[in-house]
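Figure 2 data, in text form.
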Amino acid sequence: MQVAIPHSLDKEIVRQRLRDNSDDIGNAVPGGMADITTSWASEDRMDMAISAMGQTMNGHVQIEDDQILFDIELPLALSFVAPMVEGAIRQQGERLIAPPRDSEKPD
């Protein structure tokens, strides 16, 4: 399953926000009950191993100039939840690269 999240940020900012927020990726799994292990295979690719619902999924996040691309190998046993997982990844992906809340200035 591939989910693209568009962005208009510098790749270094995206990298930093992904590093800072990678602990929150488990929240993208419905129910939020997932164990996530991440590692950086290259400057623009974060690999992931996700354990949830008795299944293990592997995937990665590829940082591109105008999008981040989540590529998750969803086991056949979990294919019925693919639409929920895609929606959750899209929502959580946008949060992962959003500016930190404490840096927002009041109007």
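Caption note: The first strand starts at residue 2 and ends at 6.
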